[in-house]
Specification:
The protein has a nine-stranded mixed β-sheet with strand order 1-9-8-2-3-7-4-6-5, with helices on both faces. The protein is α+β, with helices and mostly antiparallel strands.
């Protein structure tokens, strides 16, 4: 499926649920931007004569390594290094994922900047803000203190592909976050009669499942399945989080604030980190802790953009 209508994840979920199709493929940037992929594929086909092509991931954007991060540190050396800020460099993927998972469990909100940027409108674990989905306060916290928008805006879950059918009514891949499915019945928390009498925000704030930060009012969620083959580090993080908590799900929202596009460069990520209430920035093999940064580098995003 492609075209702008294929960005409607609710409709896509209904197609999967109510038709005989066992598998649905939806292009990562199903709107007009997806024409770039078609043009590139057409050129590749003409130059090579090959026609077989499967777009099994969306990580086609710019990539920045550790050297680019060092360049940013050098640019801010007078403020960062002289203030003895804590910048942790970890080459071991297991340790990096362990420290990140533990921080999330402690309630921290993490800016996750890794590898090639995603192509399309969704953050898919390369330029993402991630958090603990089990917290019934996390949705409000992310909206008000990080994204600077209304508290009721929903967030999506990232889940290990091997666990998706155990947590959602979905038995196929959804790597581009373009399918909505219900949270499994056994994980839902049904509303009491008293809860049902509530209205508006009060009703929205009722805990709907064991992963409330990613559960909509109708017990559904816009699911992203994470695959070891296409995003091994994000997969490893989810796997580590599951090992510790038993939950293979993380809150995943785009790494930006209201009014700005998703961050692309390391400089973008650093500015967004310093301009919001993000607690930690995990940028390639580096970890930065907000409490250790120089206050003079902070940016006031909240006053820069008008409300939506």
């Amino acid at each position: 499926m492609a075209g702008g209508c294929a960005q409607n994840s609710v409709a896509n979920g209904k197609i999967y649920e109510h038709t005989l199709f066992k598998k649905i493929y939806i292009q990562a940037a199903a709107g007009d931007a997806g024409g770039a992929i078609g043009a590139a594929f057409n050129a590749w086909n003409q130059l090579t004569g090959k026609r077989q092509f499967v777009m099994d991931h969306a990580y086609w954007g710019p990539h920045y390594g550790d050297n680019n991060f060092r360049e940013l540190l050098n640019a801010h050396s007078k403020t960062l290094e002289e203030q003895n800020c804590k910048i942790v460099h970890l080459k071991d993927d297991k340790i990096l994922c362990q420290k990140t998972a533990q921080a999330i469990i402690e309630g921290k909100v993490v800016g996750w900047f890794q590898g090639k940027m995603e192509f399309g409108p969704r953050a898919l674990g390369a330029r993402s803000i991630i958090a603990d989905p089990r917290s019934d306060k996390m949705q409000k916290k992310l909206n008000l203190k990080v994204k600077f928008r209304e508290s009721f805006r929903p967030f999506a879950p990232s889940i290990l592909i091997e666990d998706v059918s155990n947590w959602f009514d979905l038995k196929c891949e959804s790597p581009y976050m373009l399918l909505v499915a219900d949270v499994k019945k056994e994980l839902q928390i049904q509303m009491s009669k008293e809860d049902q009498t509530l209205f508006g925000i009060d009703k929205l704030n009722i805990k709907r499942s064991s992963i409330p930060a990613v559960t909509h009012v109708d017990y559904s969620a816009r699911v992203q399945t994470v695959h070891k083959e296409t995003n091994p580090r994000y997969h490893n993080l989810l796997k580590k989080f599951k090992e510790i908590t038993g939950c293979p799900v993380l809150v995943n929202t785009s790494f930006n604030v209201r009014g700005e596009p998703i961050v692309c460069s390391i400089k973008d990520a650093f500015n967004c980190f310093m301009g919001t209430n993000l607690d930690i920035l995990v940028c390639e093999n580096f970890i930065l802790y907000k409490n250790d940064q120089d206050d003079s580098l902070k940016k006031n995003y909240q006053m820069e953009f008008d409300p939506d």
